[in-house]
Structure formats: C-alpha cells, structure tokens
Design a protein that fits this description.
The chain is an alpha/beta fold. It has a single domain, classed as Metal-dependent hydrolases (TIM Barrel), CATH 3.20.20.140. The protein is built from eleven helices and ten strands. The strands form two sheets. An eight-stranded parallel sheet has the order 3-4-5-6-7-8-9-10, with helices on both faces. Strands 1-2 form a two-stranded antiparallel ribbon. Helix 5 runs parallel beside helix 6. The longest helix has 16 residues. The relative contact order is 0.16. The model has no long low-confidence stretch (mean pLDDT 97). The structure holds (1E)-4-oxobut-1-ene-1,2,4-tricarboxylic acid. (1E)-4-oxobut-1-ene-1,2,4-tricarboxylic acid (NQM) binds next to loops. This is 2-pyrone-4,6-dicarboxylate lactonase. GO terms for molecular function: 2-pyrone-4,6-dicarboxylate lactonase activity. It is an enzyme of class 3 (hydrolase). Belongs to the metallo-dependent hydrolases superfamily. PDC hydrolase family. Its EC number is 3.1.1.57.
Length: 295
Amino acid sequence: MSTDAQGRMRSWTLEPSTPTFHPPPGAVDAHCHVFGPADRFPFSAKAKYIPQDAGPDALFALRDRLGFSRNVVVQASCHGTDNAATLNAIAASGGMARGVAVVDPAISERELQALHDGGIRGVRFNFLKRLVDDAPKDRFLDLAGRLPGGWHVVVYFEADILEELRPFLDALPVPIVVDHMGRPDVTQGPDGTDIRAFRALLDSRGDIHFKASCPDRLSEAPPWDDFARAVRPLVETYPDRCLWGTDWPHPNMESRIPDDGALVDMIPRIAPTAELRRKLLIDNPLRLYWSEEWP
Ligand SMILES: O=C(O)/C=C(\CC(=O)C(=O)O)C(=O)O
C-alpha cells in the first residue's frame, strides 16, 4: 500500500517495465485519468478516494515510454463534476489528448459547448456505488438528448446490474462506450454468463463500443490468462467497436498496482492481428474522439 503522510494514495508504479509489444504509430490510450495537481485542482468534497498528484506531465511521460501517441482522459470520480484537471491535461497535450467529462445533468448548453471547445467528446455515467453517491437515470437520459453533435456517453457499471440497466441503455439516443466491458467475471470464460449477457447488449444495437481494458481489475494476477481467454473473442467478433486503455493511474488499485508495461503486452494477446490492433488502437478511438480526422 502506498499512502503518503496526508493519507493520499498512490495506485501506480513509478517504474513501469518497457513493454515488448510496440503499439503502431498513432496508437491511442483511450482510458486514462489525471489527478490534480491538487493545489490547482482540488478534489471533490464527495471524493471516495484521495490520490497523490498524477498530472499531465506524468501521463505524457508514460504515453511516450509505452509508445502511444494520444490519450483520452476520462474524468475520475475524485474530481466530481469539476472537469478543470481533465481540461488542463487536454490543453497541455498540444492536440494529442481529448476527454470525457462528468457533469451535473443540469449543465447548460453553453457549458457543454465550452467543454467541447476544451476537447471533451463525451460524458461519463458512473453506476458504481463505491465511487458515486447517486446515478439518476432519468436525468442522465435527459442530458444524453442534449449533448453536442458527435458526442457519446461512457457508461461504467458492474456485470451484476447489466440487466437492470438494459432499459436505460436501450433508451440512450447517442453512441455508448462501456468501460471495462461492464466488468464481467472473466473466470467464467468466453462463454460464461457475464460475457454472454454483454454480447447480448452489443448485439442489441450497432453503436455500443467497449473498452477491452483492465485485466488488472478483472483478473486475479498477471499474466491474466483468464482475461485474455475471455476478451480476445470479443475483440475478434466486434473489431470496429473496441477500444483499449491503460487506466493509468489505476484509481483504487493501491494494493495491487499493475505494471503498465505488462498491460501493454496484453494487447497482442487480445488483438492477435495487425488489422485488429489498428482498429483497436487507432481507427475506433479516432472515429469517436478525433472524428474530424476520420475519413
Ligand atoms: O478508473 C476506472 O476506470 C475505474 C475506477 C475508478 C473510476 O472510474 C473513477 O474514480 O471515476 C474504479 O473502478 O475504481
């Protein structure tokens, strides 16, 4: 456990290994976060964890070390609905980062446009009770109908509430990206109950994407074989709908800090051909986050 004198946790390694796998030029790390720096961007009063600073400099140093070109910065729950830290990271990236915000559903059109101008291309609806106090589906639906053109929603939930969420997901009027595939139990294997339910969701409409991410959260320990076994068939079946991300700085993983280099080495195991990897790491994230560059 890495906690400093102020009780702020560190959930990322300071010494990631250099991966064996080299991402193709232009690859996007489509799920990562920034924390602070807290003296400029304080954490929310409702934060469920208080991390050490993990700002844009550290994020971009990791990006370069791992061989990625771009980042999608997802607003983490510890910053609540104040997206300033995320916007700061996007602004510091020189166009090489875009983001996903968390907002009060009462946000005005003008504020949404300001987020768009700052590089935001979606909003995140988080249904994890350990991270947020409430997740009002009716207000989320209303907001989803008012998003700027080209935006999508990112939804974070655990497998045990997928069925309960289905009417809400079915009603969303914009494309959906599901964080970490809705956290299936990968030990059940590729044909287990959780993956089957998730496939049913993907089959229900063509604009649902998923992040084939977080073996460290979904699997017990490296080399995360059960994750590779369960997730590779998903990437192969839905090659145009998958994204990948490090999840750095791995919020709440302070007692099982993953090695970012090992996470990158999972990529060829779930996307075994160069074409699949191009879709996973370049085409799909570009279409969602840099659509102006998409043919
Ligand atoms: O970062 C993730 O993807 C997962 C998280 C943290 C999170 O989502 C947040 O704080 O907003 C988790 O499971 O604790």
